[in-house]
Structure formats: C-alpha cells, structure tokens
Amino acid sequence: MTLLETINVEPLDGPAAARSEPDFRLVYAEVFAEAPYEETSDSVEATFRRFRSQVRKATFRGALARTADGEPVGIAYGYPLSPATGWWDRLITPVPADVRREDGHRTFGLMEFAVRAPWRRLGVGRRLHEVLLAGGGEERVLLNALPAAEAAQAAYRSWGYRKVGEAHPWEGAALHDVMVLGLG
C-alpha cells in the first residue's frame, strides 16, 4: 500500500468545514508560514475570520485530506463566483467582458489550497482538487497564485491552468498571477 492510498480526501459542505476549522487552520498556518508566503499569526487570523463567513455560503465547497489516523494533511475550499464578484476588477490589465461575466454558476473561485510538506508530490493535491470540483457543474475554476510559489505554479500548470492576468487580490497584497482552468 502506498502512502497516498492511506490518505482519505473528504468533501465538505460549509457546516462540515466549519466544524473542521481547527484542521483547516493547522494546515493553512503551517503551509503559509513557509516562503514565499511568510504569513504571520495576524494574517492567519484574518484568513479564518473570512473562512467563518465563507463557510456560511450555501454554495461553499471544501475538501480535507487526512491520514488514516486522522492527521490533517491538505485543504482546499471555495465557492462559485456571484455576478457581483470583484475578483475580475482587481486585474492590472482588464479582460474582455465575456471573460469576466459571472452568473453564480459559471466560475468556481478556489479560495485556498494547501498541502503540508511531508505529503507533497504524492498526488494528495491532485486528489484534493478533484474531490473539491467533483459534481460542481461550473465551466471553469479561477485562482490567484504568487509567481514565486514555484511548486504551486507547476502543479496548477500541470493540471491545465493558464495565466489570464495579474492582480493584487486585496488591498496591500503582493502581485499574484490570475489563473483559469476550463472544466469539461
């Protein structure tokens, strides 16, 4: 049996993800403390204030990877973008209206994605990604990624994501690549 075969990836709706917040926080805080992210405890706390709001969305979807003994090893979560999303407004160079059109079903916004170091390059990330998107029905997935996050960038490209622009996703954020993956 391979190490990957001992990892369970569970799809979670908002209430289940809320109950698993300590596991999401553990993975997030560990992964995003690393370079190039170097997040502080304050930025982790801000992320989880948003998380508590995000899990209340009816369309929220999450995935949590755990070892056979329950140790959390990876997380992924997001939700379809509403027609009022500001995501496209943050691009440095605007994209055409047909690209930025949202209807609440067209695009899944991948908010956070992380796998702890000992479980990387084993296929855990790909399984998280597949479980998160299974049965959603969206046309595409949208995410922001730091250009300096080379391993994450390589994974996203290997899964078919393509860069469509650059953005500062929030006030004071570093420049991120905006990447899209067509589904189906």
List the topology elements.
Elements: E1 8-12, H1 14-19, H2 21-32, H3 41-54, E2 61-66, E3 72-80, H4 97-100, E4 107-115, H5 124-133, E5 140-145, H6 150-158, E6 162-167, E7 176-182
Parallel strand pairs: 4-5
Antiparallel strand pairs: 1-2, 2-3, 3-4, 5-7, 6-7
Helix pairs in contact: 2-3
In short:
The protein has 184 residues and is α+β, with helices and mostly antiparallel strands. Helix content is 30%, strand content 26%.
Explain what you see:
The protein is an alpha+beta fold and 184 residues long. The chain is built from 6 helices and 7 strands. Strands 1-2-3-4-5-7-6 form a 7-stranded mixed β-sheet. The longest helix has 14 residues, at 41-54. The radius of gyration is 16 Å and the shape is globular.
Strand arrangement, major sheet: 1-2-3-4-5-7-6
State the end-to-end CA separation: 31 Å
Q: Pairing-aware structural class of the strands and helices?
A: alpha+beta
Q: What would the principal axes of the Cα set say about the shape?
A: globular
State the main characteristics:
alpha+beta; seven-stranded mixed beta sheet; 7 strands
